[in-house]
Amino acid sequence: EAGVAQSPRYKIIEKRQSVAFWCNPISGHATLYWYQQILGQGPKLLIQFQNNGVVDDSQLPKDRFSAERLKGVDSTLKIQPAKLEDSAVYLCASSFLGTGELFFGEGSRLTVL
Amino acid sequence: KQEVTQIPAALSVPEGENLVLNCSFTDSAIYNLQWFRQDPGKGLTSLLLIQSSQREQTSGRLNASLDKSSGRSTLYIAASQPGDSATYLCAVRGNSGNTPLVFGKGTRLSVIA
């Protein structure tokens, strides 16, 4: 069974530029999460989708971050414009509603210069 | 608001030792608790999932326990190996299968050959 796929693995941009990350969850997983992990910290939830609806986006900086989940499968997370403090690893995870066990992708490492 | 604490932040042990990693959480109304492993530059790998009705889970040399009333979980690693070197993260999910995980900052484990 394929795991959670993310791309790109690495991205370097200058501040005020934009960037987009893509995630494809495990087949059949209705719930998709985007987490931000700053070096030395645990992951922090940015947004949670149930199918293509948003369940929780209370910690998403909506002035610069946006996310969508088209047709309840793939998801894209966008940052525009990026700030230096957005340098982090962006992790996508999915779970099958009912058990709640989370499975993570390899992450996308963003460096903002 | 749920808070998760992991102690110690870092741990170094000689190969072959048995060790315990600790996780505490402030709100005992949880749905489940999950332990993850994270290698440098990688995503999170699920190790064990304990549902709120369970007291422990075992997988190979790993054993995780859960004491909801005291807000604690431990991850026991038997006969440690250099390949166990990684960061171990504890995360708890609120009182339904659809609430997001809240993570601790992790314990960085080094097993010395």
CA-to-CA gap between the ends of chain B? 41 Å
Strand content of chain B: over 45%
Structural class of chain A: mainly beta
Determine the mean pLDDT of chain B: 94
Please describe the biggest sheet of chain A, giving its number of strands, its sense, and whether it closes into a barrel. Answer: 7 strands, mixed
Helicity level of chain A? under 10%
Shape of chain B: globular
Number of helices of chain B: 0
Beta-strand portion of chain A reads over 45%
**Parts with pLDDT < 50 across at least 5 consecutive residues of chain B:** none
Q: So what's the oligomer here?
A: heterodimer
Shape of chain A: globular
Tell me the Rg of chain A in angstroms: 13 Å
Strands of chain A, total number:
11
What's the order of the H and E elements of chain B? EEEEEEEEEEE
Helix-and-strand structural type of chain B: mainly beta
Structure overview:
The complex is a heterodimer of chains A (113) and B (113). Chain A is 0% helix and 50% strand. Chain A is globular. Chain A starts with a strand and ends with a strand. Chain A has no helices and 11 strands. With 113 residues, chain B is mostly beta strands. Chain B contains no helices and 11 strands. In chain B, strands 2, 4, 5, 9, 10 and 11 form a 6-stranded mixed beta sheet that branches. In chain B, a hairpin with a 4-residue loop joins strand 7 (62-67) and strand 8. The relative contact order of chain B is 0.34. At the A-B interface, strand 5 and strand 10 of A face strand 4, strand 5, strand 9 and strand 10 of B.
